[in-house]
Structures are given as C-alpha cells and as structure tokens.
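hey so i finally got around to running the thing on that chain from the lab meeting. sorry it took forever, my laptop kept dying and i had to restart like 3 times. anyway pasting the input first so we r on the same page abt which one it is
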Amino acid sequence: MTHDTSTSAAAAPDISNGNASVSESSFTVKAGLAQMLKGGVIMDVTDAAQARIAEDAGACAVMALERVPADIRAEGGVARMSDPGKIKEIQEAVTIPVMAKARIGHFVECQILEALGVDYIDESEVLTPADDAFHVQKARFNVPFVCGCRNLGEALRRIAEGAAMIRTKGEAGTGDVVEAVKHMRTLNHDIARAKAALQEGGDLAIRALARELGVDAGLLKQTAELGRLPVVNFAAGGVATPADAALMMQLGCDGVFVGSGIFKSGDAAKRAKAIVRATTHFRDAKVLAECSEGLGEAMVGISVSSMKPEQKLAGRAKCIGYALRRDIGTLIDGLPVTFVKRLLHHAPLRRSAVSHSTGRRAQPYRKIDRTDRPLAILRQRSRIRLSIRKGALKEMRRIYKGALMADDVFRREILTAAMAGTRNSWRH
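ok and heres what got predicted. didnt touch it at all, straight out
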C-alpha cells in the first residue's frame, strides 16, 4: 500500500488501521479457516528448529514470536512482533499454518504480518500493548485474527471487531493453569446466562443483557442460540502438562495453545507429542495416564496467587476498542433518564445542559475549576480516557457508551469517575 507523503503531514489524525482502501473480507471464510484447527494444539516457537519439533509432534499450527512468554516475563522490557526474517525461516521450515503475534492496537505490525503471508495474526496481550485505547480493527484485514478474552463481554467485543478465533487469556509464561480455568468457567457461565435470558425473556432480555455486558445484541443472541461462541475458542495461558490440556478440553475448549510449557521443559519433543495426544484423547483417562508418564522435568512455574496485579499479562490494555464504533446501535438507542440526571447532577460540567426528557436547555451550572481535564482511570498500567468538556446530551451519550463498552472490571470505576466532582443541582 502506498502513501502520498506530500499530504500526510496535513492530513487529519486517523485512528483507523490505515487500511481504508481495503474492503472488508468475508468473516465466514476467516472463521471457517479457524474451524480446521479444532481439536489441535498450537505451539509457540521462536525459530525454525522449534517449529520442526512442533510439526513432528503433531501440532496443527505454530505461533512465531521473538521470545516465549516465560522469557518475556523474566527479561522484561518491551516485547514486540518477531523479526520478519525469523518468521520467513519458520514458514519455509514447516508445512502447517504459521501464526504470529502483534501488539495490541499496533495495526502497522499487523499490516507487516499480512504482507509476510502469515496464516493468522494474534493480537496478543503477551506483547507490550501499543495502544491503550483501541484494539486493531480486524475486519479490514484479509488475514484472520486471534484474540484473548476473560469473559463473554471481551470475547464478543473482539468478534465485533473482526476476530475469527478466540482464546482464553490465562497467564502466559507461568505454567499455572488456574487463570485459564477461571476465564473458561467465566465464559461458560456468561453463555449459560445469555441462553437463560433468551429463553425466559426473549429479545428484550437479550438487549438488556447486551447493554450490561457492553456487546452487540445480535452477537449475544447468536451466542445464546448456539450455546457457545460463534467462533472457535482455544485455551491458552499456563498449559504445561498433558493433564492441563485435557482439563481445558473437558471444560469446553476447541483446542489448546501451548507456549513455554514445551520448550522450557526437560524434553521438549516428548512433552509436545504427549500434549498433542492428550488433547486428542482428552476423555480417556488411561491414555492420559500413559501420556503423562516419563516426560522429564516440567517447566519451573510461577504461582499466579503469588503475583502482584501489575505482573499479570491478562490485565493489559483494558481498552474500549473498536467495538465502540461498530454495531452499537442497540447500545445507544436511548439513554436512561436516571443515568442522565445522575451524571448531570454530579459531573463537572462547564455549560448548560439539554434536558433528556424535554429537549429544553437546563439552567446554567456554576463555573467549576479544571472542567476540561480528562478523566483518566489507571490500573495495571492501562488507561481509559473519557473527557467531559460540554454539558450537552451528546457528551452524556459518549460517556455512557464508554461505560458500556469498557471491560467489565472497569465499568464501575468509569461511572464513579464520571459522576465524581463538585455537586450541582439538577433543574429543568
């Protein structure tokens, strides 16, 4: 893709992918490609030699990255996309699909990976996030994307952005599967809740639950009807043994990602074959016992319970995302009067507001200092910015959308911050 450098400096800032000329490719085709990986194991590799070990062990695909997650944790620093030369070496070394990781929000890394001809792109929290406000708008790319989730809200927001495959986030590089189990159980619970809402309350209940989760009502209804996500869902983060892989499969995953658990163990080739076999025969306890025998020393793990919140990778880049800009008609079709009243009552506003119920302008509020400051919510080095500059209904809608679309753990903090500050009386 070419750019006119003579006009780029004068162009207005753009938060798109830079792929405005690329037509949206078929989501059905992308999701269908991911279906071919069901029941398989995808292994993290850093070079051609590891890729060959993975292919010989029976992996359905390999994930190219500059360092395995355990090394990223140990060495720190900024983790980026793998060197294109390494990716080419891996592509030439194996015949199975090759995936590659890109930083969250770094659409240029995604453009490079697409140009290299990788089969899938993983917009991964394992790498250092490049954008703390937006994920990549994946629907504009021809290559399918994989994204992580911790609950149904996150999963459907990533699918709305164009992700054709979902995985649990877990805690990569720890060898502790507890977070992956937690995320999968949470996802199963949320899907069961959506299914019950559809059966008991129909479309009205689905729309209400969609507003609560911050997702598109159509996607939520489709998920409830299917009783599962509309795309393939793999387990990832902390899988280190054949038993771990079988556990995640029995919880309902379609396959398994394994990273540090293989190439940080004593016998990588033997462990890789055992995990592939366990994933295939995940309900046969006798086969699982055979798979787990004589594998050598497992990777030295890190207990997630001993980690500080800022050390966890799954909490990175809690951003509103492009789902805020896509398919959100059901989320903003009218705001609750009580919400608008509470927000106008508490929020630091500079100008007179428009009444939600009558459309008339409200009485001017008293001038408040520092009304133009953005609301910054900081947690685990992630940030969501919501600015309150005008006391108009349009601004109230924007804040309300942000509260809906933000990740679940932030919704309360956003609403609290939005309604914090000097009190003002509500008048019509």
